Each structure stands twice: as C-alpha cells, then as structure tokens.
Amino acid sequence: MNKCIALLLFFIGSINAASAKYDSFNIDSELAFAEISTSSRGLDRADQLVSNVENDEEKIQDHLLLAEKHKITGAIDSSIFYAERATEIAKSIFHISWQAYSDLFLASTYRELGLHSFASKHLKNAEKLNEHQKEDPEYHFLKTRITQEKIAHAFSQNRYDAGMKFFEDCLRQCALVPASDKRSRALAAKNDYLLGNYYLHLGNLLEADSTFSSALKLLGENNDNLKPYLYVARAKVALDDQQLDSAQHQLLLAEPYLKKFGANGLKSSYLDAYASYYWQKNEFRKARLYERELGLVKETMTEHATYVYDELFYKLDKSTDSLSSQNQVILIVNLTLVAVILILFLQLFIFRKKENTHTTKSIKSEHPFEAEYLRSSEVLRAKAILSSNSNNRDNPSSAAHTTSDPVTNLDAQTTNAMLTPIKEVQRVEHSEKSELPISEETENRLLDLLEAQEEKHFYLRKNMTRADIAGVLGTNQRYISYIIRKHRGMDYYTYLQSCRINYILKKFKQEPQLLDYKMTKLASLAGFSDNSKFSTAFKAITGTTPSAYVQSIKLKLSSTLPN
C-alpha cells in the first residue's frame, strides 16, 4: 500500500514538474537575456536558443528573449505577444520568478506605448509576486528593477515628485545586489539616468549633466542600450544651455544605436532633440523635416497601441482560454489523485487500527496476570496508606520520628508501599509453564545481566527500546520479554516506566533540592523524552501528578520547620 501511495505522489509530481534551473540552456538563456539588454550579440543568441526549447521553463525564457529582441528592433506588437505568452506559461507551471520578470517587461513596454493603466497593473503584479520570493537570490535585483520602473512610470506622467519618493528605496535595494553580479553596474547607471532626468526637469542643468556622465562612466565600454538614451539626455541638457556643438556631438554618439535598434521611444527622443537643435540654429527647413519624421514615429506608436487594443488582446484571449482549459484538466486530474490518496490513507488507518486492537486483545488473553498486577498495585497503595495512618496513631514515638524526617516518612509510605520495589517481585511465577524454549542456565544468565544493567540505571536512556536492551544483553527480544514478564511481573513498557518513576522517587529522598526543579528537568532526569509521558507514567504508578506529589512533599517539609 505504501508503494502505491509513493507511485501516485510520483505521478502527481511528474505532471507539474519543471526542469532543473541550472542546466546549460538556462545558463545560456540568462546570458542572452542579459546581452539583449546590453548589446546586439544577444539578438543572435536568442535565435540560436529557439531550436533547443524542451520544457515549459525553457519556453518562458525563449518567449522573453524573443520579446526583448522584437522590442529593441521596434516590433512592439510581436514583443507584447511573446511576453504575454511567457506570462501565461509561467502561470500554468506556478513559476513565480518568471511571472514577475514577464510582468515587469510588460509594464515597461506598455508604459512606453502610453498605456499607463495596463502598465500599472503589470507593475503591481510583478511587485506582489517578487514579495513571495524574498529568499530567492534574484529578489533584490528584481526589487531594484521594479522600483526603477515605478519611478519611470511616474516620470512618464509628469509626476516627478511622486517618482522621486521611490528613489531612496531604489538606492537601498541596489546596494544589496552583490558587486560580483555583472548587472549591478547597469542598475546603478539606470539610477543615475533617472536622477539626471529629475534634475533636467527642475532645470538644474549642471547636476543633470554630471549625473548622466556618471552613468556613462559606470557602463564603461559595455555596449548597453541605455547609452543612446544617455547621449540624447546630455544633448537636451546642452540644448537647454544653448551649447549647440556639444548637443550635436552627443546626438552623433547616439546615431549608431538607431541603426542597430529601431526602438520608437529612442527615435522619438532623438528626433525631438535634433528638431530643437535646428530650431536654435535657425535652420527652419531641417527643423520641420525632423518634426515631420517625429510625427510619423509617434503615429507608428499610436498604431501599435491601437493594434494592442483591437487585435492582440483578442488573440491572447483565445490562447488564454486554451491554457485555462489545460489548467482545468490538470486540476481535475490532481484532485482525483488526491482523493484516491486520501481514501488509501483512510483504509491504511482503519487496517492498522484493527490490527492494533487485535494485538491488544491477544496480549490480554495470553497474559491476564499483567492486568491483575496493575489492579493489585492499586490495592497495595490503599492498604499502605491505611496501615501507615494506623501505625502513627498506635505508636506516637514512631510518629515523632516520622515528623522529624518527612522525606524518609514519605519515601516509606510511597516508595515502599505504593510502589512495590522491583526486586521484591523478582520471582513472580506464572501459573502455567512458559512455552518459550529457553534453558534454565540461559534464563539465569540473562536475569543476572538484567540486574547488572538495572544497577547501572540503563532505563534512564531516552527512547530505550526492547531491541536496545536485547542488544546490550546479547539476546533477542522474545527472551527479554520472557525474562521481564516472569521475573518482574509485567510487560516491557510497564517495567521501563516503573523503573524510571521508582528512580526519581528515590532521588527525591536522596536529593531534596530536586523538588525545586522544573517538571521538564525532572522528566529528563528520569529518562523521559517529554513532560507529557512523564506525567502520565507518574500518575499511573503513584496515583497523583508529579507537580501535586512535589507540592505535598514541600508542604510536609514546611510544616516541620520551626516557627
């Protein structure tokens, strides 16, 4: 039955399993994903990885690589399509990290299209998902990117002061990204780019240009796609400062990137800067040409946004319905399998319960003397209490002696009477001859060994099983049960508990300071693994709880102290 359950669990795991994170495809795709955002080399690598896709996680990475590729080359509609598909696949396999990356990518893309409501929805979702993986190594990097996107989102709506409220948190998260991470410098450069735009908005041209220059230094020789945006930003600073030669120089530095990448956002900023440049140079014809070209780019961006509304969402709804149907099938299969497992567990529980009941009945029928022993111990306890009270009334000197030594008195009444000492019942014989084939010589030898172990207090070892003591004595468990039943008059478990309780009661007499110990400590001293088992065994043997027993000793001790 256990094998069946294991097979079913394995089957469920097979349905939902994703491939390991650290295979060669993942390493290559992460490099390509990083290179797409830093250089044109990643574009070729993205195409090379498409043919190697095998599982769902690889499909997600492949779709995001293609989405980034199409975005950089200006094909925004295809970029959104691949990113949305990556999101849906990530949801279907419950991969939080890739869902967050996909949502962040879509938030950025929708913002650039001016679709702020959609951008805000995906940005909030990316942040929520990332908060569920705080222990993930990517958490701080992704948190920084999300915060940067929050700032950019606010700036795009001319809410500069609102955006700067996130800047301190952005710097704090960026500092937590390890310096060994190659992406850390790009993150810091993006922070400078955002801060420079804020200074430019305020008209603080000196600080703006200094911050943009700092960002370029951080990027160094890396062919990062942030560079052309920094060049255009510095050109705008120079134009505002009426430094036309410097402005043209920065625009010329940005020009090669426009030939490699066709991003409309970059084109729009570039053309706007050049139009402003020629207006200031009073070259009106060229200024109008750049403004006309700028209008065409903005018209293209509007067409992309319209296409997203009218066409792409319709296709994504159909694909979403298909994935939803697949998810429903998987959910139904999983629920069915879970129900089967629960039924099997219930059957196993009922079977074991019946088996335990049958075993208990068999033990009682085979060894009725054990129950009789427990009943007789209660009778002995009651007789001991009555006898001690009678002796105190008939013998005042004995009573005075008892009062002078309350611990000895309590031990005499409880340890000697309530707990029949183990060695006093050593020779309890069964009415019937045991069927176990054991010689008298072996029996005596094992009894001597057991008594030697009792003197060493073997029972104080926690979780001391019958197999453990059998190993110590060099025999088997059946012989151990036979020796203890015949010479101690009880089963192994009752014998073990009796030894432990008898030990702690004697310790109370020898070391009265134990009365101030916590119950947990006393339980541990007696060999019990937890306080609950100690209390249960103590009450079964003495008729009272450990705490009540200790309190009674303390009361008797206090009553003997002089006023």
From TrEMBL:
SMART domains assigned to the protein according to its UniProt record, in alphabetical order: HTH_ARAC
Annotated HTH araC/xylS-type domain residues: 444-552
Bias (Low complexity) ranges: 387-398
Keyword Transmembrane helix: yes
Polar residues biased stretches: 399-410
PROSITE patterns recorded: HTH_ARAC_FAMILY_2, TPR
Signal peptide positions on this chain: 1-20
Renumbered ranges of TPR repeats: 189-222
Chain ranges passing through the membrane: 329-351
Region Disordered, annotated ranges: 387-410
Stored Pfam families: HTH_18
UniProt keyword list: DNA-binding, Membrane, Signal, TPR repeat, Transcription, Transcription regulation, Transmembrane, Transmembrane helix
Identification of the protein by name: Helix-turn-helix domain-containing protein
